[in-house]
């Protein structure tokens, strides 16, 4: 545990570590990446990129698979390990999980679910006040900013169509430890977004805990008939 903490500190305090963090973030957002893609995005040489990837692999933060394209040499595609994900923002929620386990043992699972639901209702009220009123794009943009500040690596993009609609992506789960033990919090998150944007239809499009590399939501304005 001490070694892992020291490694994180080293990565964040040096310029080299910053580049490695950028590599981890990009792979997290895209799900996978080649060395050339990373070099292009980060604007560093392919040689430097491969050196960083080799060191990250040695540290157990990334792994690669060979993909054959055509008749040429196979191309290496890089992915994050769970340890690599742990290098990026998350909640260190061991205490929260322990507390919920204790609550389940003393008061029962129903009480745990009631507490989780109440928590997301309070969160929705706070978000609504901070987001305020405005166009759907203004509100989605503010929501993405709030989630980004909480470690979700959130981003959004507009979709074409006659009705205003947006995709909201969360490339990191800031409550991963809680969601792993109590996956119902993911359902509460969907309910929370719907409560924050009551004039919208909110649907889940991607789910980290169904094997995808991020969570995603389709937010569509409900037009009055």
Automatic annotation (TrEMBL):
CDD domains attached to this UniProt entry: HTH_ARSR (cd00090)
Database matches in PANTHER family: SLL0088 PROTEIN, TRANSCRIPTIONAL REGULATORY PROTEIN
UniProt-listed InterPro entries: ArsR-like_HTH (IPR011991), SUF_FeS_clus_asmb_SufR_cyano (IPR014075), WH-like_DNA-bd_sf (IPR036388), WH_DNA-bd_sf (IPR036390)
Lineage of the organism: Bacteria, Bacillati, Cyanobacteriota, Cyanophyceae, Oscillatoriophycideae
Name of this protein: Iron-sulfur cluster biosynthesis transcriptional regulator SufR
Pfam families in the record: HTH_24 (PF13412)
Organism: Euhalothece natronophila Z-M001
Domain of life of the native organism: Bacteria
